[in-house]
Design a protein that fits this description.
single chain; 153 residues; 5 strands; 42% helix; 22% strand
């Protein structure tokens, strides 16, 4: 895997920005229901209050992760043409000799058999690699290898 910030495709940026807007709206709704100075009633009220506080913390964590990813993608620039990055189309030859052309993407919004997300085992193994490189990655069946046959942006 490459060190440093990873590029982000325009489609992934838009998807993350949409998710961020939705999360911020959800957080505002949940935060508005938290009591400030009012005493909590019975144990059920207290449990409900704690659950909403946990929800706010979970939303804050995801919001922070998305904001960080958007900042990282902004400074990374486009993926290099000679190395696999987010947005690259890569032809790989698997250990059994089968070849497949996949697109390395940020997010899987819809089922797409040709998409390999950058955070999947194969995607992580491919990032930063060049044509001719062999990568090793884990699958549910065990460790396997693939060779980068060619790539394009």
């Amino acid at each position: 895997m490459t060190d440093g910030p990873q590029p982000i495709s325009p489609e992934a940026r838009r998807a993350l920005e949409r998710e961020l807007a939705e999360l911020r709206a959800d957080r505002a709704k949940v935060a508005a229901t938290l009591r400030s100075e009012d005493p909590v009633g019975d144990r059920a009220d207290e449990a409900d209050e704690l659950q909403r506080a946990d929800d706010v913390a979970r939303l804050d964590e995801r919001i922070g992760a998305i904001e960080g990813r958007l900042r990282e993608g902004a400074v990374a620039g486009p993926p290099p043409a000679d190395a696999v990055g987010v947005g690259s189309t890569v032809t790989v030859r698997f250990a059994d000799g089968a070849e497949s052309t996949v697109h390395v993407g940020e997010l899987a919004e819809a089922p797409d058999l040709d998409l390999v997300t950058a955070d999947s085992p194969l995607g992580r193994a491919l990032l930063g690699r060049h044509a001719g490189d062999t990568v090793t990655y884990r699958t549910p069946e065990g460790t396997t290898t693939a060779t980068v046959v060619s790539l394009s942006s």
